[in-house]
């Protein structure tokens, strides 16, 4: 470990020469003890030096360094504050140590400030960029953390921890393309890491590349056959590919390993829903709801199953529960519109679709379905207006063709 040199010239002030000399001796003994790994001894010696000469500011930094190694972060911070109050222009190392202490105490915003001071004092300190990036990620400032990690990786491109974090940060900001790009770099260093393969599979899944994601989850399960999450994630890939039976099998495996996995019950319930087994779907979704009673997506899924059974009152009941939990959850209004439409209560359906449109929820489907509801009550002009609005919004050729057919029939 690098230890700041102890020089007699650092001892200034009005204390007696004898006290200064004793302080210097303890400082040198502390440095020797620290070098030898005798941290407790070093701490005692540095404290003795300060006791004999309180203005010996280098000793506050030295004692802080030892306190940090002994995991006494609060004491280290106190000493660093004293040191920096007397040496504000000579603080790159002290600010770095203070940043590490703040980080260890989960005081991440303060750590960001300290590592920023390090960078201002020593722009070539790439470690500070890495440490600041990690600290920013801890406070949720993902977008700002990305360039810090990129700067660090410009020199230390093989640091797998930094690559892993950067890939995760791109994912957290919704940039799945770059998340996968960084993950591929990481894969060259750790080709048999389940964590790396999971990260690559997740990036592809979230970017809609389900077929490309599937081999990654197969590899993960080849490495971790007892991972409930891996079975769950591969099940999700199968679900997105429309392969509901293998999805159910993977959810079965996931639940065998984690019997209270609410999301696995929910997604298995949705798979059964797609397979037409509505009784099993309802059973799974009810179990999921008992495990996670405030999951709005489960309530919406239950309403879909009851709607398929034409039990519309029950479907609305679950949507009402969802609305009570979160009145701003946009998709509820669209789903309520669908239930009312199926009940042939077109006025109520129009009201719900209008709410959905106001919330910018399921916008294309809401315009389309509201247009159809207007047609049902004979409001052709309003129907045409909704369909024309949708035609301007959508790029789906099939929807455009369907709209053009309806509009032609209304002429």
Automatic annotation (TrEMBL):
From the UniProt annotation, give the residues forming the signal peptide. Answer: none
Source species: Pelolinea submarina
InterPro entries noted in UniProt = TPR-like_helical_dom_sf, TPR_rpt, Ycf3
What SUPFAM superfamilies does this protein's entry cite? TPR-like
Q: Which UniProt keywords apply?
A: Repeat, TPR repeat
Domain of life, per lineage:
Bacteria
Q: Where does each TPR repeat begin and end?
A: 92-125, 194-227, 228-261, 262-295, 296-329, 330-363
Against SMART domains, the record matches this protein to:
TPR (SM00028)
Q: Transmembrane ranges?
A: none
Q: One Pfam family name from the record?
A: TPR_16
Keyword NAD recorded: no
The protein's name: Tfp pilus assembly protein PilF
